[in-house]
């Protein structure tokens, strides 16, 4: 029996408003931002390469963020020679930490004594049929 069959069986025995799936989400970190922004803005292979190049300059040090990244001599030089880098560095702090993806947790469900909305913040996702 898969998770959807279990959910169906539980939800038929218990009012559907009392059962909810738990979501998991990821947030944008510096490397991911530096790759994602050029893809979204410029949608070209050179922009994707630029994003990869910028992400490669990120240091894996505790406390290393966008502020420290902007101060790297290599980043300053790139920013001066390519307007796209300056734009990427302008947008990155605005998106840092934002939710990048939302998924259904594989085994996480809540069954409440009353409607789940009485106990938890909820988001309703629409099912898209094939």
Report on this model:
With 130 residues, the chain is α+β, with helices and mostly antiparallel strands. It has a two-stranded antiparallel sheet with strand order 1-2.
Summed over residues and divided by their number, the pLDDT gives a mean of 84
Number of helices: 6
Provide the low-confidence segments as ranges. Answer: none
What string gives the helices and strands in order?
Answer: HEHHHHHE
Tell me the strand percentage band.
15-25%
C-alpha end-to-end distance: 22 Å
Q: Shape, please?
A: elongated
Fold blueprint:
Layout: H1 3-13, E1 19-27, H2 30-42, H3 45-56, H4 66-70, H5 73-81, H6 83-95, E2 99-111
Antiparallel strand pairs: 1-2
Helix pairs in contact: 2-3, 2-6, 5-6
Task: Fill in the keyword field for this structure.
130 residues; alpha+beta; two-stranded antiparallel sheet; 2 strands; elongated
Quick summary:
The protein is of the alpha+beta class and 130 residues long. Helices cover 48% and strands 17% of the residues.
